[in-house]
Design brief:
Length: 302
Amino acid sequence: MIYGLRLNENLEEDVERPVEGFAHMFCYEDLSLHPGGFAPWHWHQDVEFMWVMQGGVRLDTSSRSFHIHTGEGAFINSNMLHYKEPLPGEPPLVLNQLFDVQLITGGYKNVFEEKYIKPVIECRELEATVFKPAAANQRRILELFCHSYDAAQLGEYGYEFTVRNDLSSMWCLLCREVSSITTVKKNVNSQGEERIKKMMLYIRDHYSEKVSLEQIAAAANISERECLRCFHDMLNTSPFGYLMDYRIRRAATLLQETDLPITDIALTCGFFGASYFGKIFKKSMDCTPSHYRKTAREKAVP
């Protein structure tokens, strides 16, 4: 399955389930197919394991940045804000598996959930972690990832058991890898994460309008100064930098998926003038809107 990022009204990813009743999704991701060539800030309830089969990926969370190279992988925790973009060099190709942890718990409030699942998904310090084949434990996680991915792709009778067994083994190894984080009791203030999500949602709802810093800050009931600090600390950008990126991404999607005139797209996405839109779009995307539309549609042709 080729990856297509679909975000719902809360900027949470809608994860497609290939098989009803089996809370697992696997996909092949080519970042160049995303508008702008990157996966924007988002989150999902499912946990995610990824493996880079070609090139390199920068994975950002709200407090850390990871560089993941060919043959390496990563784990992204449940409901964690994250962003992916290519590293310089060969275009990255990534395999992903996302699943609801209930797939491997086997029951409510049993030993698996209480001892192994909850300590991980409730640990807000554990946003993500990287696996490198040089470390034996991490190499085994990557091997199990590839084995389960292949099983899911082949889809032979009983493959669901193979996938669930491999994911369970991966989870046990993950618990060992991150025990130094999950066993330390900390008081995490999730206020910053709640605030940034509220402001991101405000921008999603009003990106086509004239938006002020005061309005963005008010969405989270904080001061303008705190708003600036929150975007800087969690997303490494400014409120208006995020707003502009969001507008460009929406414009890129409309260029790719509709026949709307470029002037109409500019106005729809909050750019009050086609000339200004063209200038900002080219600066961000390294090409004009018309060239982007032509290239994106050529890629979409099988």
